[in-house]
Amino acid sequence: MSTETGRESRRSGALVSVMRWMENLSDTQYAYLLLVPVFVLLGIVALYPLLRTFELSLFALSADFSSTTFVGAGNYVELFTGEKNRYLPGGTTFLPEGVGTSALLNSALVVTIIFAVVSVLFETLIGLGQALILDQDFYGRRWIRAAIIIPWAVPIVIQGMIFFLMFNSNVGFLTPPLADLGLLAPTNTLNDTASATFIIIVADIWKTSAFMALLILAGLQSIDRGLYDVAKVAGATKWQQFKLITFPLILPTIGVAVLFRSVQAMRVYGIIDTVSSCTVVPSLSCMVVATFTTREGTSAAIAFVTAAIIGIVVMGLIVWQGEDAI
């Protein structure tokens, strides 16, 4: 009996010591302690795959694909000098081989950046407009909010099929009027790089504007309504209220929304594959998938470069927003 009591006492003593240690921690130290599980999980699911990808990018398959050889930065050098372009599908390249429209749109890096910048810009503007409308009190607001979410809830495969049928040069009803305006090629529309890129950007804007609207709406509803009452008493116009109250207070929310969407946009693949193809509209993710089975080192190098670009974008947005970004 005394032995069991002693063991229980030692256990209780250890537990009490841990509790006292935690009680003596500062608020900052306690916050970091609570984040330890998150950091461990992040290291397992994010950091390790990234390091493993970098390791794979330092090797190249032999000519007969039977063994790997350490090449160091060779894959990266060949990628940026154009030596790896012969392994990419179709006539696509990693970097543009000229300054013409065709050369730019055949570059996976350029197309990815164009897609990310244009789609995120219009999604943010449209989402902001939708959020400002949904923040107002009017009859049927609940149903309109539900309707706006529908495009975001549509699976990418279904979304791709919708836009494939709408813009197919044989059966698509939107191709003729847009072709008359010079926005699309009248024939072989989805096999034309410029036309297919335009369609894919429109498809992404249609789907993801709702995501931006929901995030921005959450920021709008956190604003103290008393500020607007004070502004009305002071004689401020609607534009002045938006410029001096609404926009500054939702800017951190917009920054977070842009951050999330920029990361997703840089990894675009599914909508390209379902609407057109990666040989028509190249992207960095398309290049990773296309080269993975035959050129693992090349695929890993492209993937790591993509991750590095995403990291630069994220850090740039955080610096732009400051502490409010997180």
From TrEMBL:
Which keywords accompany this UniProt record? Cell membrane, Membrane, Transmembrane, Transmembrane helix, Transport
Q: What is this protein called?
A: Carbohydrate ABC transporter membrane protein 1 (CUT1 family)
Task: List residues of the ABC transmembrane type-1 domain.
Answer: 109-319
Highest taxon in the source lineage: Archaea
Which compartment or compartments is the protein found in?
Cell membrane
Q: Which family does it belong to?
A: Belongs to the binding-protein-dependent transport system permease family.
Q: Which residues form the signal peptide?
A: none
Provide the Gene Ontology terms for cellular component: plasma membrane
Spell out the Gene3D superfamilies in the cross-references. MetI-like
Which membrane topology term applies here? Answer: Multi-pass membrane protein
What's a single GO BP term from this record?
transmembrane transport
Pfam annotation, one family:
BPD_transp_1
Tell me the InterPro entries matching this sequence.
MetI-like, MetI-like_sf
Q: Which CDD domains match?
A: TM_PBP2 (cd06261)
Q: So where does this one cross the membrane?
A: 30-51, 58-77, 108-134, 146-167, 198-223, 244-263, 269-293, 300-320
Sorted alphabetically, which PANTHER family does this protein's record hold?
BLR7065 PROTEIN, SPERMIDINE_PUTRESCINE TRANSPORT SYSTEM PERMEASE PROTEIN
Species name: Haloarcula quadrata
